[in-house]
Amino acid sequence: MTTGTPAPYTTRRAVDESDLAACFQVRKEVFVGEQNVPEEIEYDAYDADAVHVIAVAADGSVLGAGRLLHGAGVAAKTGGDLTVGSLGRLAVTKRTRGLGVGVALVRAIEDAARGLGLVAVDLHAQTHALGFYERLGYVAYGPEFKDAGIAHRAMRRTL
Questions:
Q1: pLDDT at 5
Q2: 139-147: strand order across its sheet
């Protein structure tokens, strides 16, 4: 049932330095602050060429962020398949979890992947988030592994 009221937030591609700064701030809050990921490994060389997506509230505050890696520079993350993108660094602020922001960000990243001509998206999910991604059509493959000391599984969704 639609009520005609606008969504409390929108998702869009990060377009300028202030958008990127907002993405990095959300990642710092979630990964460094909450999950104790060392800050020096949270940001990497992939950030420069990634497609960054943000969720923004009507008041301009950023609720979440994620990124899509693609191309030859990230082939190691996609099994060497240049038609597959790599979704990563998906983070939603603690105060806005449960509002569908994560789902909206994943779908926005998938839309960006389609726009680049990609046919699938891979990701490395923290094991506690497997159900979230499974509900969005991702299928786990391969063994569990540690990244930044946190258990993960590889997952893929064909677009």
A1: 46
A2: 9-13, 51-57, 62-69, 84-92, 120-126, 150-158, 139-147
